[in-house]
Amino acid sequence: MPPVKDLIFKDPYVDAARTKVLSDGSMNYVVDMYDTALKETISKLKQADKLVRAKDTALNRKTSEFKAMIDKAAVEQSQLLEEKKAQKEKFVDKFGDLKGKHLKEINRLRDSRSYEVTHERVRVQMAMIVKFNKRFTEIRNLETRRSDFEMARSLQSQAFGTEPTGRDLEGLPVQEQGNVSEVEGTEDTSGPTTAPAVPNSASAPVNLTVREESSAPTLGVSDEDPTLPLGEDGAGLDPEDLVEPSVSSAEEDGGDKSNEQAPASKPQGAEEDLGESSAQEQGNVDEVENPTDSTADGTGGISDPLGAQVIRENLDRAED
Can you tell which superkingdom this protein's organism belongs to (predicted)? Predict the structure, then answer.
């Protein structure tokens, strides 16, 4: 190509060439811009890929760590459960043995308590039986020793109010009734007021009246006012009048009892004592009924102190 100065259309060519160069430069500039943007994008993608890889690595590491921790916790939990199960079985066995021992001890204590209560109940019952047998034996012996005369004396005492009757004993407590029966047993076994039975049923009540007259309030004699009771006309009563009602009532009671009960059999020595005591008491009654026979030599012939006192008071009143 000839030089530019030799060209005919020099100026247009120069313009066209300049324009072409300028257009090529513009094109290159655009290409460079694309190339630069592409390179930047590629570098960014590489960096993002590296970041993703790093994140994936960290996530995998964390996941593996978490998985290891979960597996470890599961293993520990399973071991703990196994230990708890073993401990529970051990405690169940131990508590089962203790429960059996406890039940045995409770049953033993209950059985021993029942045995003690039963033994105590039997002991109390045996003591009551022994006590009742002793009491019944005493009553049986007392009834065995009781004779017809003692029965008549009891009836006479109840009739004159010197001995409590069954109606009076009903209002007393059981202990006082036992005391009254003990006093009766003591009086029956003491001797001075008890006289054996005699064959003559009429003389026995008379003798009983003479001996029991000291405690009977029918005479009306006391230390404070030594006066005899007055009759219907105001005059003093004689000893005969005082003794005869008791004798008659005693004879009636004795006659009824003699018809109902037969005299008990006594040994020979006892019969002799009965004869002597009945003779002595009959003499006392005769002396009381006939006081004029013993006034000659004082009161020496009277053995009954009550009869002597009555006669002495009668004599003093006669002298006044």
Answer: Eukaryota
